[in-house]
Design goal:
single chain, about 350 residues, Rossmann fold, 2 domains, 6-stranded parallel β-sheet, 12 helices
Amino acid sequence: MRIAQLAPTYERVPPIGYGGTELVVHLLTESLVRRGHEVTLHASGDSRTTARLRSVTPVARRYGDPDGFRHAEHLHLANAQACFADAVDGRFDVIHNHAGLEGMVLAATSMTPVLTTNHQAFVAETAGVWDRYPWYHHAVSNAGTPLFPETGRLPAIHHGIDVESFRFGADGHGYLLFLGRFSPQKGAATAVEVARRSGRRLILAGKVDPLEVGHFSEAIEPWIDGRMIRIVGEVGGEEKLELLAGADALLFPIDWDEPFGLVMVEALASGTPVIGFDRASVPEVIDHGETGFVVDHLDGMLRAVRQLGSISRRHCRRTAETRFAAERMTTDYERAYEEVASAGPARPIVGQSAEGSPSVR
């Protein structure tokens, strides 16, 4: 097939550090190329790919970068426009939109079928846009699926990773790990409280965006002593692999409906069990009592920390290999592409709500 992958331009593909969406785009793109598909990647110019690369900006312009914030959204939209302009001559059989609402709106006038992966949670403020136009779309977890409109909705496709690229840790090195953004919703402050009350060492790894500086300085930074609670900042490459493989457990105390939570799968690939709150995709990814613990509150997380010895780290790794490999994800997407391409492009609904609209499938 001839496939266009439309990525955000906030991070390069693959990302250097934080960037779950861009990592998924990278793994999928490279896997599709290996399978013989003709793939064009629309992303930042510093991206690395074996596909044909098209870009409107030489480097990624990250959200949270004071120098790039002003232009980041404009470049993101320009990248989406360039992708659809590239498709006007029938060059692609399908466009795979990872770029969110901008790509979806442009899809309304596209003669090329478009599949949108909802990497982010559904935002109620955009409901009017969803009501006006039908698209082929899917969530990345079963929990997220019913949050999106039924029109054009396909079954969820779980993310996959390159499991073999992760180092297996047969034994933990005596610390708990939090890896992610330091936003209230991600729960780093809860991870700190778990560490303090359990007397366990905690390593915090992640980035602090400008809008989250206040929360970080008030709820997290005062407890960082460099010994029991240590921060290493945003990590990638070998440092990230080493941290994941050496952790006794990954703490995932989310306080929002996380669309997927790729770091959970990365931990499993490293042999590291996950302790997460029972929200959103957590019970889909973690098998309670087998690859970690799914708990309801902080006290449950504290009990789970004491039970980590019952989890087989080898079983965690096998679960990642069988359920969350990039090749499984690619096969799922190939099926979705065939379905979308055979159905043809979705057409706009004029003067009709989503409840009264015909199915686009």
